[in-house]
Design a protein that fits this description.
Elements (H helix, E strand, L loop, with lengths): L6 E2 L2 E4 L6 E5 L11 H8 L4 E5 L8 E2 L8 H14 L5 E6 L1 H12 L4 E7 L8 H20 L2 H9 L11 H11 L4 H11 L18 E6 L3 H13 L3 E6 L6 H4 L1 H13 L1
Parallel strand pairs: 3-4, 3-6, 6-7, 7-8, 8-9
Antiparallel strand pairs: 1-5, 2-4
Helix pairs in contact: 1-10, 2-3, 4-7
């Protein structure tokens, strides 16, 4: 962990610590160990070091302070401080969903610390203030739902959403995922929603054409919403390339970890 700051990140390191490093950022309700061996081993086998992080409100990361410490602006600044602690002038970033939004934020606001970015099933935020206010209300309602029903019931409702429909084709694997998610603290997740939800995040759409580092966008073919967002991002960002993965939904790295690991490896070493 890092020193006494607003966030004490819990993280895992794979491979030789001093080599070129890939920082991997999970999605909402995830954890550092969401990035399984099928994903990390192709990276370490080509000489990359990998750091996987528990984001604010998740896993074993310790938070000091209220909701402001969960905001994406603070989280990004603390990740840069973690890079400093690890003596890394820059790193590749791989982020899924919420973690993908964070990776894009870091690329926009700390471009000198970012080498390449992989954004899986993520957006640059919402374009208009009306959309953001609507989302803030939706995320507040979601937080209230977390507070008012049993945690396992909420998890089953969450993964029953159409967004995750393709995950039901692997029922035993999905049950194992839900069992791991039971370890989360619902109160901390509510703070994460309030501080780092899509509604709270500043829009990055107008910044995409300013990016200079290579950007790899990944979306699942069965995830129409984020496939469309990926196409819109690629049109706006000259350094972006998009891969829509057949027979995959929102969580590509969970559904097809071997393919995901090889895609990320090939992009980062090219």
């Amino acid at each position: 962990m890092t020193g006494h700051r607003s966030i004490q990140f819990h993280y895992r390191q794979y491979g030789e610590p001093k080599r070129t490093t890939v920082v991997m950022l999970h999605g909402f309700m995830g954890a550092a160990d969401d990035w399984t061996d099928e994903i990390t081993e192709p990276l370490t086998e080509v000489g990359l070091s990998v750091v996987t992080i528990d984001l604010p409100g998740h896993g074993k990361t310790i938070m000091h302070g209220g909701v402001d410490s969960y905001r994406i602006e603070n989280c990004a600044a603390e990740i840069v401080r973690l890079l400093d602690d690890l003596k890394l002038p820059s790193a590749h970033l791989v982020g899924y969903s919420m973690g993908g939004r964070l990776a894009l934020y870091l690329a926009v606001h700390y471009p000198d610390r970012v080498r390449k970015v992989v954004s899986e099933s993520a957006s640059p935020g919402l374009k208009t203030e009306i959309e953001r206010q609507r989302r803030i209300l939706e995320e507040a309602a979601l937080a209230e739902r977390i507070h008012t029903i049993p945690w396992e019931q909420f998890l089953r409702e969450w993964y029953a959403q159409p967004l995750f429909a393709s995950m039901s084709s692997s029922p035993e694997k999905l049950e194992a995922l839900i069992a791991r998610r039971l370890d989360n603290d619902p109160r901390s997740l509510c703070l994460s929603l309030q501080g780092m939800g899509t509604g709270a995040q500043p829009s990055l759409w107008e910044n995409l054409d300013q990016l200079t580092m290579p950007l790899f966008l990944i979306a699942g073919e069965k995830d129409a919403k984020f496939s469309a967002i990926g196409h819109a991002m690629a049109e706006r960002c000259p350094v972006a390339q998009l891969r829509v993965v057949p027979d995959a939904g929102h969580n590509v790295h969970w559904e097809q970890p071997h393919l995901f690991g090889s895609m990320v490896r090939d992009f980062l070493v090219s």
